[in-house]
Fold each of these.
Amino acid sequence: MTSVAALMAWPVILPLLGAVLALLVGRPGVRLVAGVASVATLMASSRLAWEVAHQGVLRQSIGGWGAPLGIEWRADGLAALMLLTIALVGPLISVHALDHLGDREDREFLPLWLFVWCALNALVLSDDAFNLYVTLELTTLAAVALIAVRRDLPGLDAGLRYLLFALPGSLCYLLGIALLYGAHATLDVGTLAQRVQPGPVTWVAAGLVTVGLCLKTPLFPLHVWLPPTYTGAPTPVTALLSALISKGSFYVLLRLWLEVFAPVLDARVGQLLGVLGAVAVLWGSFLALSQTQLKRVVAYSSVAQIGYLFLVFPMATSGARAGAIYLVVSHAAAKASMFVAVGNIHQAVGITALGGVQGLAYRMPFTFLAMALGGISLIGIPPSGGFIAKWLLLNESIGTRQWWWALVLLAGSLLAAAYVFRILRGSFLPLPAEVKVRSIPLRNELAPLALALIALVLGLVPWFPLELLAIGASR
Amino acid sequence: MTNTWLPLSVLLSSLLPGLIIFLLAEEQRRTRTLLNLLAAVTKLVLTGVMAWGVFQGRQYETRLPFLPKADLVLRADSFSLLFITLSAVLWFVTTIYAVGYLEGTDHRSRFFGFFSLCVASTMGIALAGNLLTFFLFYEMLTLSTYPLVIHRGTPEALRAGNVYLRYTLSGATLLLAGVVLLYSLAGAVEFTERGALGAVAAHRTELIAAFVLLMGGLGVKTALVPLHGWLPVAMVAPAPVSALLHAVAVVKAGAFGITRVIYDVYGVYLVHDLGVMQPLAIVAAVTILFGSVRALQQGDLKKRLAYSTVSQVAYIVLGVSIFGTASTIGGLVHLVHQGVMKITLFFCAGNYAEELHVHRVSELRGVGRRMPLTTAAFTVGALGMIGIPPVAGFISKWYLGIGALEAHQPWLVVVLLTSSLLNAGYFLPIVYSAWFQAPREAWKPSPGRWEIGLLLLLPTVATAVLSLAAGLFAGAELSPLGWTRLLTEREFRP
């Protein structure tokens, strides 16, 4: 293999190797194997990102056959940034999972997470519509197993729900690319971008692909599976779902839309996606505000935050693209930290209601701090990655003279502030006397804090990710 | 010659100690106090060096890469130094006061941590070299003051916190909208003497819209009517917090921002030309009268002081929104004078509450015999607020009055005089009954040598002396007035 091939292969091979090994060694060594695999994958991802930052876009044909016949992988700045995000956020979530799940689940969670990691990395690097389908499917199936890892009723129910929505999503997507393949005889994304013409086939294909991916992400009004699934799944799995797995399908949608579909579609279709996103922002925030269970507040917040991402489609500028990707990354870190913090609270006081946070600021200061910093990023107050994303999107909405999206962004922030501070302010109340606080391991307190700090750092040095993103932004 | 590290160090001198203090255990009282004072002194020294340098014409600028077309800029110009010096001095005395005030209470590490963050944000606001940087620190100020407002953790405090957030976050949203609008129009607007928007002056509608949004956003923290509702409610915070909130941090951040926008973003000539100055002056005048009338109705001492702040901060806004040098000098110098005088009054209110558990105005009868020094300080502050020479407040009102006449707006002189009468109406009875009426029952004697612990007494006396000094030595070149005149002349140089 040439060095470029090796560079691009390691981030996919290493977690796969780790997963297989972890399954084989079983109980005694599973943590060690997963730990080594995580560090190695992080290094491989960083190495690739480094090369992309210095050499520009890297491409590699798999098995020696180039496009349009063979499968191409392509690493641009966006892919590099996603690799880094997954490599930083995922392992921190799995650190928290160690003590949150039981011993048996632990043994199964780690290999499954490594499978998901492998599939996501392959998805990020892939530049072939069918290859994208395969990696999406792999992610979904591993995710279903993860959701049900506890084998309890809420978990199984949640897993089944997810499966029932994700499978039709995949089928829609598959049908869409089958149409494209029939019309243009290629699956390579770059070649497709050159060959597609406006016409009924393209429109139907674009519709199918979009609906399929919106089901998986999910975009309002296809989000109905999200709250019960996120609530029923074990908390570390919810964190993975919200932070990384749902971003996989959005990533595919973003790529295909901006690179293939946008030039040949009516601008009104983009507006429609924007409207649905806007409704998701307002409706999701409103529902988050009316929840009484802590985890559901954070889950509904995901509906809203995903809504913001879809504002990129009506604007469709490079600035809006950067804003949406920035939100993907900072939301991954911030939301993971929130979910993991919620997991800590459940573990420590055993209360799932919103009141469980009472006294949190005194008893679990790191968890509280993580929740506060994560919340700030969700609202979009500086200093946080969420603010940078909001700033970029706001600028584009004014710049493209679509000021109504700016109103949605600002209103969404205020609603987010309302539900975030509803959680935070309770934590300043004195700890109720009857509540027993179980002590939890320090690393469980530090994991959400580290995640929240990622969101914070994204707000302090935004020029670095933004410069990386710009590499290979247009073909 | 440009010095690149000093502005950043001024910021870090309260940011880093703040972060360290969070990590200290509750019992490490000595370490915490030492760290606090060390940081406050460091900041004073750094500020002094920078003030001297700027006076000599040196440049201080820290520029960090941030977004593609917008850097993070920290720059010390003469206007920021006015604000920084005020904050550095008052932070120092308030720290001493707070150490004494919170002796033996819970969660002090958290308190002093956020206290330092709050000052760091204020420094950032003062040093910000463009609107984006300003906005970042403006938001940071909101976040770091919220835990201070709800510090006591009572349901009442939490409710006050809710009100505070509702107002400030809505304000921030307006401000952000304004900043984005200007950014899309003119790029990263750097603060420049006499304005930076000359090139886009033709886009009148957008400029006016942005101005209204910016004023709406900044007006919340400045507590301009009708955006003032949070200020009296936030009085549940501990006394040192109220003192800092009212004198330096929050309301001043708003007033400072308004001045920045008018003079260094738009430029006073452009604002005048857009015709948005007069409406702002009217809002300020209404606020002045409204605040004074409401203050008159309050029986609670801290509430009365809060409404007095609403009124007094509007003087600053009034001064900068009348077109002319004298009024601008009056407004800007009041930024400093009001800070020093108001912090004195809040320290006194804190002393009364702490030592004698007196909260209401009617309970202050004869308090002068029991706490003569505190009451003397209160008297100085009150006389200054009314505008009686030689206390600093007189200087501000004098310049405001002259400015109103220069601008041919005699109705403003009527506003100023009415407000002074109202001020006298709500301050003089307190002063009178404190000194000349007999107490209802004998005060319990002080356990110590002084009327109250020295940590509380000294800062109170010190700020009272400062209020007097600023008035007496107003003619000196480096007095607040001298500095303000220098800076105003540059803004109006055609």
Note: Chain A is about 75% helix and 0% strand.
Amino acid sequence: METFINQLFAGASLASILLMVALGLAIIYGAMGVINLAHGEFVMLGAYVTWALQTFLGIGLLPALPIVFLAIAAVGWGVERAVVSRLYRRPLDTILATWGIGIVLQQLVRIGIGPESRFIAGPGILSGNTGFGGVVLSNYRIFVLVFAIAIFAATWALMAKTEFGRKLRAVIQNREISECYGIRAEKVYAMTFAYGAGLAGLAGALISPLVNTTPSMGTYLVVDAFLVVVVGGVGSIFGTAVASGIVGETTAFFSMLLNDTVGRIAVLVAIILFIRFRPSGLFPQIVRR
Amino acid sequence: MKRRSFLTRLGAAGTMGAMGGLAAPAIFRGAGQAWAQGAEIPIGLLFSLTGEVAVVERTLHDAALLAIEEINAEGGINGRPLKVHIEDPASDPATYADRARRLFIRDNCVSVFGSYTSASRQAVLPVVEQRKGLYWYPTLYEGRECSRNIMYGGAVPNQQQQDFVPWLVENFGGRFYLLGNNYVYPKEENNVCKMLLDQLGGEAVHEEYVPLGHSDFSSVINRIRSTGPSLIFSTLVGDSDVAFARQFHAAGFDSAKMPVASLTRSEVEVAAIGGEAAAGHLSSAPYYMGYSSPENERFVEAYKSRYGGDQVTHFVSEAAYFQVYQFKAAIEKLDPAEITPEAIRDAAVGVTLKAPQGEILVDPNLHTHLWPKIARWKSDGQAEILVQSAERIAPEPYWAYAGETCTGEGLVRS
């Protein structure tokens, strides 16, 4: 029973990391139809900004979070203005372009900062574990879980309750008509892309005390994030949240029953079967094209 | 039938004629003369400077280049400087093979130093055997290979484990949790470990392989909690090792009671893990940056002054460094007129050398006799050596495979 609860928490923790990475991806795809293959590199940049703030300015991980968000959002904004905005009429080309941007960012970090892995200390107040009986939960992982849920709620509120969200939804529905009403679609797109990138940066900062910070760290993460987005239904942020929960818990469940290697294969097979029978994911977006 | 054999002969004669008349003097004799008489000795460096493996291979490249520069600063070998050709195989095995071909054919290198992963070495293997070249491979690896064209500078399983595993059983108990990445190296090491555990009366309570690059160890940690082993015997590499070490520490395990005993963790990984999380865990390797010997002090100081004070040396970069000196020692034994890759190989056998880790020796099977050391990591990121092996340990790449031995004549099956 204790093992089961521990494993349940492991799945939830995995899900929270997946949610953080996948949320930005889902927003960018949902709003703009851009499959952002540089998303993993935004995550990586987030981790590196955290590292730089900690190493050179002595700013701890928690106070660094807002700075990281703004910094990576700025990078995202730049990428959108410079490259992606020129390709809205050619959505397939954005895949190639963002993939290329990803390679460039990765190699720039490798050349500029160096290929070796970097150490980022976790926040001291969140070290240690909370335990009762045989159940042991890492404080930092609890924090990441809560933080991911909070970010999700904030994103939902941004989409549903604010003027920006209303404009964005209008542009998603019909770009031309929205523009007729005075909404500057390109500005909305740039802001959305920046927001998605900022979320990726936050994800990078949050996972940096748990994993190895290297220029190629984003590559693995982005694959899992894509799986989550596909299962959730591309563009649906609720779908993304539910799907990251499902993928996280399923992975943890198979890992407990079998092992991580077979568990991963089992999850991938399950996703392929799922997509076969529900090609638009859990919550398909209903948009008039 | 007759017609076919006639054609074959015609073809052969034609080829020989063409080569005899035109190509042979240009290529073959030219090459020999280049090696014998040229002012410079051409060698190649084949370490990835871009892509995923660059994290480690960059340091190997730096260490080998340092040795080359030192040799050239002292006037080269027998008065002939080393001419170094640098290729970047970009972490892709197929590119390794392609660039190795380029180094051996176009640049006419007598030796190439390269590779970190077994995958890249095995990609180069057919090229180097076909071109009769010589490839110097500095990494510890899983054994079970016995090429006559590769000089193996790193440890094979028996060198890392034959002292380590009994010591672990004696000090921590015999219930091992075997954890590695899912590829050939961890599996071969674990085969050797299980063989030793059988002899010592220990057991592998769980054996588990995670995908390369795997970075979420919550499930593994829960399983460790429920099996309660004496120690974790780890062959995780790179990203996975760092992620596991940090999460293992965060889970609140005490390294004094249940340490991680690693065959792959070096100063590079420890720097990324952080001293606090790495402290108290154990490693077995022939070299540590903190090992005190005059040769090592000189090596570390030269490395730091060349590449920066925050750089670390480790057990693979040490081998990348000393292999260049083994190459030098071999060339010095040769008459300049007879320098060929095969002559260098034969001359290298039996070469002894004061390396940073101690005095090492090249075995006839082209692997290296090394000085494995058991060490405990400290919170400053350096290792404290607990046990120095009593004698230099001979390499036995087929240790776990009865009836197969790697000798000076290649693989012998009895």
Note: The first helix of chain B runs from residue 2 to 37.
Amino acid sequence: MPTNNQALVFGKLRAGLQIFNPQVARPGTLGFLLSKGGDTFIIGAKHVLTGTRPGLGDPIRQPAGTSDIAIVRRVSATLDCAAAVLNPDQKFVLELLHIGVPGPALTPALGMRVIKVGSTTGVTEGVIDRINDNEVTVKPLRDAPLEYQLTEHGDSGSVWLERDSHSPVAMHFSAQSGGASVSFAIPWPVVLTELDLL
Amino acid sequence: MRPFLRVRHAVVALFLLSTAASFSQVRLAVRPPIKRQRHAEAALTPDEQAAVTKNCGENGVPKLAPDQNFGSTTIIYRKGYVLEHSAFDKIPLWVCEGFNKTQWDPSSARTDNFRPDPLLKPGERSELTDYEKKGFDRGHMAPAADFGSKDLKNESFFLSNMAPQAPKLNRVFWKNLEDLVRKWSTETSPIIVYTGGFFFDPKEESPATANGQVEFKRIGKNNVAVPTHFYKVVFGKNDKGQMRAVAFVLENKEAPKGATFESVIQSIEWIEDHTGITFMPDLDTAVSAKLKHTPGKLFSANADQ
């Protein structure tokens, strides 16, 4: 079985790595790292960071790691997003694994080519196919092979970035069952508003 | 890949009125549009991952063809088996079990504790009443006899592990096939078995006779689909440690007179083409082609390897 690089523990934490709440035990992706007000937040899917628990105060770890990396501090009441504050001694870099430094936040647009790094599929590319108020649908590129896995279990929380600028545009939280790979994501500005991180 | 021939957008009833009244509750059903559902994309828990590794092996859970609309499905992870259940058909699309002899021998007494699966919502699963007086057995996909311990045997009786099966198939040829396959596993040589029902009409194989529809029955208040056929795919290793595989397909009725295990062998590729399911999707491509393209051979014709 090939090594899942995203599940490994790096010297410095970065987006794209696998994280979980030990009390939930369903790993997902550290979607984004963001510094605000003296704290550094990791942003991910609520069902990964808290599951069905209230979640505030829960520790977050890397499944392959041995120590807590963050504490859940912000949980959306209505959307599948949450944020945890990194522990002060946790080393990190404001980058995404395999991609690098992100650009400034962008509003998603129809037809936008996007990439993400998920803790299961690694870097994948798609195109924004539909936008509603709180939801963005991303599909594989038109000429992608039928079997192309845009996303997989473990990718929840990964952030779609505009392909060229690497600007965050939406956060992946669910997928379509039993068929072609489709990602459902929350527009990035909505995530930041919901978690009071604008 | 050959064209995938199962077409499931319409149903034509089969009325077997000449038979006993028990068949009178088999009725016409019309499919509503199948809508794909969503699932959250967190990864598996350690217990779920352990169930996958034990029962489906290291080569992944079966994958559904992305160009086919299977509707809402749920993967259920248990110690003894893993299955993907169709909320639309109320039967499993596939059930995989990986085991060696120590799992089934010695065997505890069978309890016949049939019950709906609490992991599935009412309305998306079959209930006991769906099978009552319909003329079909609650056919185990992962057979109860594959489990020696009381707990594992007990969990095989969830209806999510069942499909309506013709009694004369279930209790005779199919049972014998299950007995044969089980005994291919020894203490040191585990096997992985995939079982499920599917919908197939030989007329759809030819453009001259195909009409784009496969007729099948539904039973009970929850419209449980009655598969036209069942498959069983078995992976194991030979004495040299090389992978081997064999697969069987049987129509959901009494096996033909004179049928032998050899006579119902089918290639795994054929089954994949006609079910839309890829077994062991992460298997090395060359190994996969070798095992799946041509029909396999019985690991042995009896209990001895």
Note: The mean pLDDT of chain A is 94.
